[in-house]
Every structure is written in structure tokens, then in C-alpha cells.
Specification:
The protein has three domains: about 1-180, Alpha-D-Glucose-1,6-Bisphosphate, Chain A, domain 3 (3-Layer(aba) Sandwich), CATH 3.40.120; about 185-405, Alpha-D-Glucose-1,6-Bisphosphate, subunit A, domain 3 (Alpha-D-Glucose-1,6-Bisphosphate, Chain A, domain 3); about 410-540, Alpha-D-phosphohexomutase, C-terminal domain (TATA-Binding Protein). The termini are far apart. The chain contains 18 helices and 27 strands. The chain is about 35% helix and about 25% strand. The structure holds alpha-D-glucose-1-phosphate-6-vanadate (VG1) and cobalt (II) ion.
């Protein structure tokens, strides 16, 4: 078998965003585009000769083709062994689990997560390091620089590998092992959670509905909920992964997971509902006629962690992304453990977890996880809730209400404005920044501005600094407005406005978040001049 060296023009747009490189499938299908990025990864991370890497994706359109290309390039770049998920599929948390379990050098995850798939949809690729987590910015920046300069890549000339059969195959001098990653992942879950208690809950007639949104978690959910926990077969829906996610938008929120939402708010609603995204790292938690915000979910898991076997000795600390509500901060304070505030994106949690400083992490964007892996983990979060419900035998709503009674409620909402022209989004950010000098001290309705900044983060472990992570308007009573631009989109700009107000008054806890945040939302719209600049009179998604 021969290794071919092929010319590439180099690409200037291969800058990884919040979570890897994401582009339209059509962009990835351009000659040399995928190869250019993959070679840049190999050149940057320098896989030691003979080392093992892990490879898998969320099964979206172009997954199989990309895997065959990457395998041949890995063989040509001296990789010793590649562990590939069967059929080329691995959820993001399962990939993280496999990297750690088999002590691989790292891995590539092929996914554009919650972005739609199919020939007209998105594709993506991300490199994860030895700890199983996303590569830090230092590495992604170096990959981006390399991708611009690259002029040739190496690829083995060979036939495609059979990805559907478990087994070991040779590709040049490299070994390809097709593995059953559902088992490794499900085994890890069984170590952390009390499966017997959850099984007893289902046996007692507890009903749940999990929506895999035709994305990667279907087979994992079937193995864990149905086979291992004995839930009735109709407890999972849309559980067959499809390359285009059935034409849907695999983002587990109130807008895109509306099929599930209708069931949980319907007349025959089960006690518990949950959904996960394209690559299985996000989660949405619902009770009967009840929605749990991701920020509250993180705080509640932290407050009840000792109910769960894997955390029964307590948690070392917690971390949340900056826009995530401060609900978990209050729990950390009560538990007397540290709480860290990081920029958006899971890559900022890795160092803290490696250093043993935090056990639980979360983001307002439906991402929660712990140090069992180095990615956010959708099914893990669902199992946390099931385990807590099995121990407490209360409804989801009762658990949340009790939490608010104890800690107060951090009322929270996020407004997304998708597909804006980039120039308008930049103009709006500029407009807000220009007001920063005179805003502090001003009274806006019932809120007085305390401070404004553009969030900047210094990693306490390696000292690296990340600037421009979002505009913050902080009020004297602790309420906040945060404004940032998405780093995961592939076309145009998505503007996110995050709102948070603290409500200690128990008599107001049952009120709707939109109602409670009405004034703050109006202040945000005035400050941003959103309607004048963009012409939009309502958000695309409200969480
Ligand atoms: C979004 C979320 C962020 C999350 C990221 C990746 O990023 O806000 O919290 O980590 O997606 O999630 P952005 O830059 O669009 O706001 V996933 O499930 O795509 O791996
Ligand atoms: Co995801």
C-alpha cells in the first residue's frame, strides 16, 4: 500500500469556534477541505508513533465518508491504532469515555452537535486531547494557523474499512478496531448510578419519555433505559439515528423538541421527560407540565449529589459558564465548596477537572456533566435526575420548588436571534459597548447598574487568558444582562441575550420566568436597540 502526498491550497477559514470546526456539509465536501484540517490537526498535536486515537461521530450525513478519509490519513501519519465506534458512531460523551478508558492519545469527534444535518445541513470536526476533553484554545489556534499554511497532506491508498462489524482490521501498518461503544458508556453509567433503585422506580409504574431526536443517543438510551433499567419500550422516542435527524433540528429545547414538550404538557403526561441533542452531550429535563432550566438543573444536581452513588462522598467544587445563572453558586456557598465562572464552551472546564478542583460543571445551554468524562453528557444528566427521583420519590416540580424555597430562585431566560447579518450583529455589540463608560450608576427602571464589562477569563491552572467572552451589564441587586455572539453557527450571526434576576420571595416562585423578567427584557431591548438595528420584533428561540 502506498502513501500519497497530495497538494492542498491551504484554507483561511478553518478556525474552530466554541466547539470545533463547523461548516456547511457543502464546504466540507470541497476538494481537500476535510483533509486540510485533519492534516493540520496531526501536524499540530504530533501523535507519537504507534499511539492510539479514537474516532467517531454523531452519524450525520457525511460521517461515513469522513471517517474513511481520516482513517487513511491516520495510517499515513504514523498512528498505531484507531478505535472507531461501530458504524462510525460515537456520542460525544462516549468518545470522551473511550479516550479515557483505553488511555488513547486523543480523538476526533465528527459532529456539528445541535445544528441540523443532511446534505444541506452542517458538519463538524473537533479534536479531543488525552484527558478526553476538547482541545484548549492554544491547540485550536495552532491548528487554525497550520491550516492556512498547509500545502500538502498524506493519505494511504487503500480500500475502505468495514465499519459495521466489530473486529480488528489492518490499514497499512495501522490497526483499526471497530468497538461497541454503547457498552463502555453504559458500563460507566452503571458504576456511577444506582441502577437497582432506578429499576425499582420503573417497576413501581413511574413513566418517562426520552426523545433522542433521531440523533446519536437512540442506541444508548435503548441499552440503558430499556435493557438495563427495565423501562417500558415506549419510554424512548425517535430512537433510530438518521443522517438528517429526520429533517429536524436536534437541539433539545422548548422550541426544537416540541414533540416531546407537547407530550409532557399533554393530558396523559408521564412524570418525567428528557431529550438530547445531535451528538448526545446536551440534555433537557422536563417534569409533568414543568420545565427545568439547565441552570437550575445543575444547581439541583449539585445540591442532591450525595443521593448518587458516584458522588456520595460529596463534590470537590462546581463550575459554570459565565452566562449560566448563579443558582449553583448559592449551592456551592451552602456546601462550602469552590465555584468557578468560565467562558462559554466545555473546553474551559477541563483544566479545573484535571486538577481535581471541580466535580460538576454546567452551562445554561442544556449542558451538564461531571469529571467522569471531560465532555458534557446528556444521558448522564438524565440519569442524575432519575437517581434523585428514585431516592426522593417526589415529582420534578416538587424537587425544583423545594430547591427554590431553600435557596431562592435565580429567574433565568435566554433569547436567541438566529440568522442575523454579521454586520448588524457587530453593530449591535458595538452600540452596547459604547454605552459602558456612562452606564454604571444609572437607574434603569427598578434596576441600578453596578458595572459593565466584556468578560475576560484567566485560567487559574495554566494562566491562559481568553478575552471578549461576552458583554455583561451587572446590576446592584445581582441581576444581569449578558449579550454575546454564538461561536457554533455556520452562516450569518446568532445573537444571544441572557437575563437573570434573583427572586427570594417564595410567593412569586410559581410565576412564569418571562413574566418575572419582563422589565429586564425591556431594558435589554432598549440598551441594544435590537429592533432598530435588526428589524426583529421577537427572538427565534426563547429558553
Ligand atoms: C453553544 C452554547 C455553549 C456550548 C456550545 C457547544 O455555543 O452556547 O454553551 O458549549 O454551543 O455545544 P455558542 O457559541 O453557539 O453560544 V454543543 O452541544 O454544540 O457541543
Ligand atoms: Co452537542
Amino acid at each position: 500500500m502506498t502513501i500519497r502526498t497530495i497538494s492542498t491550497p491551504g484554507f483561511n477559514d478553518q478556525k474552530p469556534g466554541t466547539s470545533g470546526l463547523r461548516k456547511r456539509v457543502k464546504v466540507f465536501q470541497q476538494p481537500h477541505y476535510l483533509e486540510n484540517f485533519v492534516q493540520s490537526v496531526f501536524d499540530t498535536v504530533q501523535v507519537p508513533a504507534g499511539a492510539t486515537i479514537v474516532l467517531g461521530g454523531d452519524g450525520r450525513f457525511y460521517n461515513r465518508e469522513a471517517i474513511q478519509v481520516i482513517l487513511k490519513m491516520a495510517a499515513a501519519n504514523g498512528v498505531g491504532r484507531v478505535l472507531v465506534g461501530q458504524a462510525g458512531i460515537l456520542s460525544t460523551p462516549a468518545e470522551s469515555c473511550v479516550i479515557r478508558k483505553y488511555q488513547a492519545f486523543g480523538g476526533m469527534v465528527l459532529s456539528a452537535s445541535h445544528n441540523p444535518g443532511g446534505p444541506e445541513g452542517d458538519f463538524g470536526i473537533k479534536f479531543n486531547i488525552q484527558n478526553g476533553g476538547p482541545a484548549p484554545e492554544k491547540i485550536t489556534e495552532a491548528i487554525f494557523e497550520r491550516a492556512k499554511q498547509l500545502r500538502e497532506y498524506r493519505i494511504l491508498e487503500a480500500a475502505d474499512i468495514e465499519l459495521d462489524q466489530l473486529g480488528t482490521y489492518a490499514l497499512g501498518d495501522m490497526q483499526v478496531e471497530v468497538i461497541d461503544a454503547v457498552r463502555d458508556y453504559a458500563d460507566l453509567m452503571e458504576e456511577i448510578f444506582d441502577f437497582a433503585a432506578i429499576k425499582a422506580l420503573f417497576a413501581a409504574g413511574f413513566r418517562m419519555k426520552f426523545d433522542a431526536m433521531h440523533a446519536v443517543t437512540g442506541p444508548y438510551a435503548r441499552e440503558i433505559f430499556i435493557r438495563r433499567l427495565g423501562a417500558p419500550a415506549d419510554s424512548i422516542m425517535n430512537a433510530n439515528p438518521l443522517p438528517d435527524f429526520g429533517g429536524g433540528h436536534p437541539d433539545p429545547n422548548l422550541t426544537y423538541a416540541h414533540e416531546l414538550v407537547e407530550i409532557l404538557y399533554g393530558a396523559q403526561a408521564p412524570e418525567f421527560g428528557a431529550a438530547s441533542d445531535g451528538d448526545g452531550d446536551r440534555n433537557m429535563i422536563l417534569g409533568k407540565h414543568f420545565f427545568v432550566t439547565p441552570s437550575d438543573s445543575l444547581a439541583i444536581i449539585a445540591a442532591n449529589a450525595t443521593c448518587i452513588r458516584g458522588y456520595r462522598d460529596g463534590i470537590a467544587g462546581v463550575a459554570r459558564s459565565m452566562p449560566t445563572s448563579g443558582a449553583v453558586d448559592r449551592v456551592a456557598k451552602a456546601l462550602n465548596i469552590p465555584c468557578f465562572e468560565t467562558p462559554t464552551g466545555w473546553k474551559f472546564f477541563g483544566n479545573l477537572m484535571d486538577a481535581g478542583k471541580v466535580t460538576l460543571c454546567g452551562e445554561e445551554s442544556f449542558g451538564t456533566s461531571s469529571s467522569h468524562v471531560r465532555e458534557k453528557d446528556g444521558l448522564w444528566a438524565v440519569l442524575c435526575w432519575l437517581n434523585i427521583l428514585a431516592v426522593k420519590r417526589l415529582s420534578v416540580e416538587q424537587i425544583v420548588m423545594a430547591h427554590w424555597r431553600e435557596f431562592g430562585r435565580n429567574v433565568y431566560s435566554r433569547l436567541d436571534y438566529e440568522d442575523l447579518p454579521v454586520s448588524q450583529a457587530n453593530q449591535l455589540m458595538q452600540h452596547v459597548t459604547e454605552q459602558f463608560a456612562h452606564l454604571p450608576g444609572q437607574q434603569l427602571g427598578s434596576y441600578r447598574v453596578h458595572a459593565c464589562d466584556n468578560f475576560s477569563y484567566t485560567d487559574s491552572i495554566d494562566g491562559s487568558v481568553s478575552r471578549n467572552q461576552g458583554l455583561r451589564i451587572l446590576f446592584e441587586d445581582g441581576s444581569r444582562i449578558v449579550i454575546r455572539l454564538s461561536g457554533t453557527g455556520t452562516e450569518g450571526a446568532t445573537l444571544r441575550i441572557y437575563l437573570e434576576a434573583y427572586e427570594p420571595d417564595t410567593s412569586r416562585h410559581a410565576l412564569d420566568a418571562q413574566e418575572l423578567l419582563k422589565e429586564l427584557i425591556q431594558i435589554a431591548l432598549n440598551l441594544t436597540q435590537l429592533q432598530a438595528i435588526t428589524g426583529r420584533d421577537k427572538p427565534t428561540v426563547i429558553t
